[in-house]
Amino acid sequence: MSKAAEIDIVSVSKVYGTTTAVEDISLKIPAGTYCCLLGPSGCGKTSTLRMIAGHESISSGDVRLGNTVVTDLPPAKRGTAMMFQSYALFPHLDLIDNVAFSLKMKGVDKEQRRAKALDMLKLMQMEAYATRRPAQLSGGQQQRVALARALITDPEALLLDEPLSALDPFLKIRMRAELKKLQTSLGITFVHVTHSQEEAMALADLIVVMNDGRIEQAAPPRDVFERPATAFVARFMGDHNVISGRVTGNQDGMVVFDVNGGGSLAASGKPQEAGQPIDIAIRTDHVRIGAAASPGLGFTGIVSNIEYRGATVKLSVTGAGIGDFTVIVDDSDFFAKPVAIGDAVPLAWDPQDAIVLGRLHS
């Protein structure tokens, strides 16, 4: 039976002196969810994680774990466990004593805590190394020990601060699979801070994209990728072109707008007021070379760069008032009708592939 807890963050802010690190965020993380807090450095994701853990005080708002408001509780009384980026293992203790440390602090007798520590090391497939010290382990092994130490307290939620950042690329991918498997088998809530879009997409049931201390979007990975809520999310997740302009009108379920520097485009979305600023997103792999089927669903640009990527070819195209625009085309389509740097090429997309983005920061 899982003892996962829902985490409810209610109007939480964190202010350091005159700097607001986290600004009035609200978020519900359902019990048993793998949630990734994603964003660039300094966006407030680690401060948010540390406030859930109790390692950082909350300036205003509340954090609830299950039915308990934990805002003022110390970390050990919250039912959460935190795994730090540096692993923070004790160099002078063997793995059993490292893993058993929190139980020792709670006064659990030696035999009982060592037996439980060995069980946790078995779960991590590390029991063969039980008598070793941390310095005798690889990065991936140290990480497993840090996980065992965090999980020994039977937390309702495990909080992970960039847990894969110190590992080499091959090990990162392996540990990603292990984390997902572990979370599924334990059934507890995981909250994982990362700045890697790929990591968040691979692991999360819920991605929370943060920017400048605020939440830009909280949704399942496919929604974040297919329907980014804001220009920031579209740019940060990559694989989208963002075009900005001003609304001129609405026609046949499409919003028509002018881009800075001439040219008119259209996107599917709710009617917008003329004169309003607008951002739209178009997936890089949903653009084709060729004339647009109807006005506003394409433009002609100049090819500035071509990168062959095996199965696909990446074209960088510059358009008047649009700036840099990326097109990912199938390699067979490209080589059937190749283009060269300096060529003027018509680009087009379907109406449903141009989506109007929300504006969080006006």
TrEMBL record:
Entry keyword annotation includes NADP: no
Stretches that traverse the bilayer: none
Pfam families: ABC_tran, TOBE_2
UniProt keywords, alphabetically: ATP-binding, Nucleotide-binding, Transport
Residue span, ABC transporter domain: 7-237
GO molecular function ontology, one term from the record: ATP binding
SUPFAM superfamilies the UniProt entry points to: MOP-like, P-loop containing nucleoside triphosphate hydrolases
InterPro entries documented for this protein: AAA+_ATPase, ABC_SmlMolc_Importer, ABC_transporter-like_ATP-bd, ABC_transporter-like_CS, Mo/tungstate-bd_C_term_dom, P-loop_NTPase, Transp-assoc_OB_typ2
Family: Belongs to the ABC transporter superfamily.
Name by which UniProt lists this protein: ABC transporter ATP-binding protein
Lineage: Bacteria, Pseudomonadati, Pseudomonadota, Alphaproteobacteria, Hyphomicrobiales
